[in-house]
Amino acid sequence: MADPCNLIHYAAHDSSTRGRIHNEASPRYRSAFQRDRDRIVHSTAFRRLEYKTQVFVNHEGDLYRTRLTHSVEVAQISRSIARTLRLNEDLTEAIALAHDLGHTPFGHAGQDALNHCMQPYGGFEHNFQSLRVVDHLEEKYAQFAGLNLTFESREGILKHCSLANAKTVGAVGERFLNKGQPSLEAQLVNLADQIAYNNHDVDDGLRAGLINIEQLQEIQLFEEQYAVVRSQYPKLSQRRTIHEVVRRMINRLVIDLVETSTQLITTANPADIEAVRQQPQPLIQFSEKQHELNQKLKQFLREKLYRHYRVMRMSRKAEQIITQLFNAFMEEPRILPDEQYELLMAQREPERPRIIADYIAGMTDRYALSEHQKIFSPPTPTV
Ligand code: MG
């Protein structure tokens, strides 16, 4: 299948892909990156994202973002930017939909707790786990474990990585050792992720009543757009006002990103995707001014939302649940379901904790709660 005809020369092309770990014939009516995207959409880990926390735990309300709706928003923003810059839209969509597949239940609290438990056994990184999901853990195909994605999708999924882990994954880990860059498609998904979560966390935080408009008016990024909306529509309801502000904020960030990156790319003038990878800096960036404004919003969200006492209470519970599950499975592996127990017993002793981490990381919020209850809650007595 030929590449989309309007791709710029330094985009990711089917013809210059570094290929898949296991050789496969090219798909007939799809590009290599469309096939990656399709495999991700059909994966089990993708469906689980629906019941995994972004910031608000799944059962707290039906209207908050989940990992799934977050990933779909990241894909939307990524595709718009990719199309404008004539980058490979299919690849950005694949990376965006897969970027959070390795997340534990209960958001960052869950990830921190699992990382803490795994410290003696190599730690736990969610980006690295996302790669592990698509490379090893998905069980779909007769001929290989995982989804056998292209190098370019895997490169984008592995956004961050410790040097110790980078050494274990071959070519896809090399850029962390050589200080190279990933494709422009990967770079832009990384920033589209930030655009998505900063904005939807404002929306969710307001909806939950944990932050309010008066506080946000201290934040320039919000205040500028809020002032525009208020002057144009002074009588608009609060809900519609918030949406009008958030959509303008997203738009402003996307425009800044497109314009700044266009300048950087024009100056660097990369000959092809390999030249992009050898750049000393990413070519997809916000302007310095915009970056500063983003940092202010991030800091605000960190202090007022992610560290709000109601969010912190849930985080504490999440840490306990994850830690207690991990310790229980470590102490007595026989309480693991048969499938995980057999996997664990097939490993050498030092590799066994990783099987437990895989099992816990794969849980949805509600599955983790139910496992915890089954193991720790005393049964209700029947009279
Ligand atoms: Mg994300």
Note down, in words, how this protein is organized.
With 383 residues, this protein is an all-alpha fold. It folds into 2 domains: 28-310, Hypothetical protein af1432 (Orthogonal Bundle); 311-376, no CATH class. Helices cover 61% and strands 0% of the residues. The chain contains 19 helices and no strands. The chain is globular, with a radius of gyration of 22 Å. The model has no long low-confidence stretch (mean pLDDT 94).
Short description:
The protein has helices spanning 32-41, 44-48, 67-84, 89-98, 107-117, 126-137, 151-157, 163-166, 174-178, 184-208, 213-216, 220-232, 238-268, 273-277, 288-306, 309-331, 338-345, 352-361, 365-376.
> Total helix count?
19
- What's the average pLDDT? 94
CATH homologous superfamily placement of the largest domain? Hypothetical protein af1432
What profile does the largest beta sheet have?
none
- Specify Rg, calculated over alpha carbons: 22 Å
What sequence of helices (H) and strands (E) makes up the elements?
Answer: HHHHHHHHHHHHHHHHHHH
Distance between the termini: 68 Å
What is the CATH first-level class name of the largest domain?
A: Mainly Alpha
- The second-level CATH architecture of the largest domain is Orthogonal Bundle
Number of strands: 0
In the CATH hierarchy, the third-tier topology of the largest domain is known as Hypothetical protein af1432
Shape: globular
How many domains? The number is 2
Helical coverage, percent range: 55-70%
User: Could you say which small molecules are bound to this protein?
Assistant: magnesium ion
Find the structural class using helix and strand composition: mainly alpha
Oligomeric category: single chain
- Runs in which pLDDT lies below 50 for 5 or more consecutive residues are none
**Strand content bin:** under 5%
